[in-house]
Specification:
Blueprint (H helix, E strand, L loop, with lengths): L2 H21 L7 E3 L2 E17 L5 E16 L4 E13 L6 H8 L9 E6 L4 E14 L3 E8 L31 E11 L2 E8 L8 E10 L2 E10 L2 E12 L2 E11 L6 E11 L5 E9 L11 H6 L10 E10 L4 E10 L5 E3 L2 E6 L3 E11 L12 E9 L1
Antiparallel strand pairs: 1-2, 2-3, 2-21, 3-4, 4-6, 5-6, 6-7, 7-8, 8-9, 9-10, 10-11, 11-12, 12-13, 13-14, 14-15, 15-16, 16-17, 17-18, 17-19, 18-20, 19-20, 20-21
């Protein structure tokens, strides 16, 4: 058997092994006695991507991921989560220098809870801790320590307020966030107002993240206020969300004061409307004064690895999305993003089939056009497909 055949056998075996683990955990909770309870959940996913790379060669990537999570409930006040990821990757992408470099430039965390178990020419097998936190909660406060998701902002495409876990609007998996090793404290003042204090640990002050976030409701609008230091940048932010007519109107803005650069502004305003026939339309405008220079575009891998939904080459963008049910089980979605300064654009149509037994199958494409050194013009088109089973 060829080395490729050996790899396919290993990958198929890995997927089967992941499935057996998952099937063994279908009963929830897996342990319960008095006030103590343990739940087991997760998903098994296979995702494939095909594209020409930056040099015109074939770029193929297959990823098999098993995510498992243990949720602990120690009573009314204490809870915890420990979730891990085991992921096998294969394909010509592993020979692509840009992909290899970008895969090594992961978002910073204090604890290095990841390990490449197999690293050869035809397969990577990686283990990582996705979440590991302990929480205390009562009627007034909620405190969490450990690796967690600290979420600020709610914009659909570009979220200037999401400073702890920013992610690209081009991401195929926008809900996948590495998280932050640190602590957060939420203090409720009344049913509509709360204060959040957040800390992301670093070796020194300049590698740490701090934020104070206040949310309140005035009439029908939620108002959000932010003051933060992210590494060496000081950030002030404001956001709102509510209803205009029968649709949702939202906006976010931040003013960043870097240590060794000029201050800059980022802002988003959007509107979303849901029709009774399942059609949802979203329109969003994003302005970014914190652009990167042309010199930083000499390494596409570096740019792609920091595509966090905040960093752009140009300043003004219009984004549109639509989604509607073709049948009760099949949904069509599409997004269009247009660079108003340089004319480059992105189109991303996809289909999702919701099968029985918590299985979903999705497929789509991402198409880019425009001149080089624009936000969308230098990226190659690609096809993708995914099948996922949640348990």
């Amino acid at each position: 058997m060829t080395r490729s055949g050996d790899f396919l056998r290993v990958l198929s075996g890995s997927a089967l092994l992941f499935g057996l683990f998952a099937f063994s955990a279908l009963t929830k909770p897996i342990y319960s006695k008095d006030d103590f309870r343990i739940d087991f959940s997760g998903y098994l996913q296979e995702q494939a991507l095909h594209s020409p790379d930056f040099f015109g060669a074939s770029f193929d990537l297959s990823q098999t991921r098993w995510r498992s999570a243990l949720d602990f409930n120690f009573g009314k006040a204490l809870s915890a989560e420990l979730s891990q990821t085991l992921e096998a990757s294969a394909g010509s992408a592993l020979d692509n220098p840009f992909y290899v470099l970008s895969s090594e430039m992961k978002p910073p965390t204090y604890f290095k809870w990841d390990k490449r178990l197999i690293d050869d020419e035809e397969m990577w097998l990686e283990f990582s801790i996705y979440r590991a936190w302990l929480a205390y909660e009562n009627d007034r406060i909620k405190a969490i320590i450990g690796r967690q998701r600290i979420a600020f902002g709610s914009a659909y495409f570009y979220s200037p307020m999401d400073i702890f876990n920013p992610i690209s609007p081009l991401s195929l998996e926008p809900l996948e966030r590495v998280g932050v090793d640190g602590a957060s404290l939420e203090i409720d003042f009344n049913p509509t107002s709360y204060l959040t204090l957040a800390y992301g640990a670093g070796e020194i002050l300049d590698q740490s993240r701090f934020a104070t976030y206040f949310k309140t409701t005035v009439k029908s609008y939620d108002l959000h206020f932010l003051a933060a230091r992210i590494f060496t940048d000081y950030i002030l932010g404001f956001a709102f969300s509510g209803y205009l007519k029968e649709g949702g109107l939202y906006g976010e803005a931040t003013y960043t004061m870097p240590e060794d650069q000029d201050n800059f502004f980022r802002g988003t305003i959007g509107y979303q409307y849901s029709f009774k026939n399942s059609l949802v339309l979203t329109a969003e405008y994003y302005h970014n004064d914190g652009v990167i220079s042309g010199l930083e575009m000499t390494n596409p891998a570096s740019f792609l690895s920091t595509q966090n939904g905040l960093i752009t080459i140009n300043r003004n963008f219009l984004a549109l999305s639509t989604g509607f049910d073709l049948t009760p089980l099949i949904r069509f979605s599409s997004a269009v993003m247009y660079d108003l300064d340089a004319g480059s654009f992105f189109i991303g149509p996809s289909f999702t089939y919701s099968a029985p037994h918590s299985i979903t199958a999705s497929a789509g494409t991402q198409l880019f056009d425009g001149s080089k050194n624009t936000d969308f013009g230098f990226l190659p088109n690609f096809l993708w497909a995914r099948i996922r089973w949640d348990y």
